Amino acid sequence: MKSTKFFVGATLAFALATTTLFSSCSNDEVVNNSDRVAVKFASTGVSAQTRIDGVNWIGNDDHIGIYMVQNGSSSVSENAANIEYIANTSGSSTDFSPFDPAQTICYPVDISNKVDFIAYYPYLASVAEEGKYSVDVSNQEGDINLLWAKVDNDAAGYDKTSGNVTLLFTHQLAKLHLTVVGDIGVGSLSGLIVSINGINTEADFDVMTGTWDTGNSPNSISPKEIDNGENYEYEAILLPIETLDTSHTVTFTIASGVYTWELFSNIAKLEAGKKYDYTVTLTKREISILGSIADWTSEGTGTGEAY
Fold first, then answer.
1. CA–CA separation, 112 vs 171, rounded Å?
2. How many domains does the chain have?
3. Are 155 and 16 found together in one domain?
């Protein structure tokens, strides 16, 4: 993925210790009883499949941010906060290296000081004291993505004898994919305008806890049209919503009229990491809906009607 694939208007807000306080070590240091040891990071194929393209890391174009925290807490250890790392290879799995070797994350010297690791993608250098990553999904033409990982070695924590740390990333946004077809009598779908209504477009993600605030910016979103030469397909990356209600609708506007799908009637909530795949049939009688909900890495199918 290109390094420019950031949230439109997104800023990462998290307290970062100054560079002069960060205690780094050589990425080649080895384990012994006293030396500092560099942490080796990798991502498995399972993690890579949670990326926005669902397939591969793109080598040095993919930058992540990593935090080393005290085991069982969100307190930063060794001042290792928001350290930029890059993917070393392209493919379904990769390992990571520090963007700046002088910023290599090292384990605490004392092996009794256990640590966990938090990571996110894509990396953003901008930081502030609130500790929030602000996300804006109003412009669907941009490349929108947010992955997050926290690993704690099955609650035991890591130390300098632990070996490689595998980061298991998951999507923190939801994806809605629509295929729109017209029934007999509806007429041409040429010029179709799709609008997803009542959806929050802005919210803050807490990098340290992996949680969202509720957001309070309901608006209409124009999904991105997927040009495949045949079907009318649209896709939107959306903020998670715990409960969909009557304010959450999708409207389809063509020359013969406006057709409304009550989104909440088929989908109870929008969950992070889920893909909602629906075929919508516009009819004079009603909107017909058939769809499925699956993990983002899966391709679900379904159909339905709108009126």
1. 33
2. 2
3. yes
Q: What are the tokens at 191?
A: 């010029």
Read off the tokens for 38: 């560099």
Greatest alpha-carbon span in the chain:
79
Residue 3 lies in a domain: no
**pTM for the model:** 0.83
Residue 225: which residues within 8 A CB-CB, separation 6 or more? 232, 233, 234
For residue 260, with 0-12 CB atoms within 10 Å meaning exposed, 13-18 middle and 19 or more buried, which class applies?
A: middle
Single out the residue of 168, 142, 135 nearest to residue 154, CA to CA: 168
**Cα 113 to the chain's mean position, in Å?**
31
181 and 90, same structural domain?
A: no
Q: Is residue 109 part of a domain?
A: yes
Distance CA 280, CA 254 (A): 14
pLDDT digit string, tens, across residues 197-232: 999 999 989 999 999 987 778 999 999 999 877 789
pLDDT digits 0-9 by tens, 189-205: 999 999 999 999 999 89
Tell me the sheet residues that pair with 95: 42
Among 208, 267, 279, which residue's Cα sits nearest to residue 15?
208
Residue 81's SS3 state is: coil
Return d(Cα 250, Cα 222) in angstroms, integer: 10
- Domain span including residue 287: 174-306
Question: Is 147 found in the same domain as 27?
Answer: yes
